[in-house]
Specification:
The radius of gyration is 13 Å and the shape is globular. The strands form two sheets. Strands 2, 4, 5, 6, 9, 10 and 11 form a seven-stranded mixed sheet that branches. Strands 1-3-8-7 form a four-stranded antiparallel sheet, with no helix packed on it. By secondary structure, it is mainly β. It contains no helices and eleven strands. It is about 0% helix and about 50% strand.
């Protein structure tokens, strides 16, 4: 069982930055693909960014160039650096793990709220 815990959310003004963290409980992410997703009120959950076990990165068009996903060398924490935040980035952000590296995210964190004021 993999437990994921997100942190780093909060309230920020438009144009500001936040850094989200996702920590694994009791194990590393070493061979997992990892992703960040978000869900705004009244909307479906959407993909934000992903990092493969080998370090490859992918981003949603809406965040490319503003957000950066990374993982620490010990592969116990995944980060999402969010710059130039916009009010439309307001959402609950979720970290997810894909252990089989097949595109299916089997484990999810509880989410952290990000609110961007205009």
């Amino acid at each position: 069982q993999v437990q994921l815990v997100e942190s780093g959310g909060g309230l920020v003004q438009a144009g500001g930055s936040l850094r989200l963290s996702c920590a694994a409980s009791g194990r590393t992410f070493g061979t997992y693909n990892m992703g960040w997703f978000r869900q705004a009120p009244g909307k479906e959950r959407e993909f934000v960014a992903a990092i493969s076990w080998s370090g490859g990165r992918s981003y949603a068009d809406s965040v490319r160039g503003r957000f950066t996903i990374s993982r620490d060398k010990g592969k116990t924490t995944v980060f999402l650096q969010m710059n130039s935040l916009k009010p439309e980035d307001t959402a609950v952000y979720y970290c997810a793990a894909d252990p089989e590296r097949d595109g299916g995210y089997d484990y999810w964190g509880q989410g952290t709220q990000v609110t961007v004021s205009s």
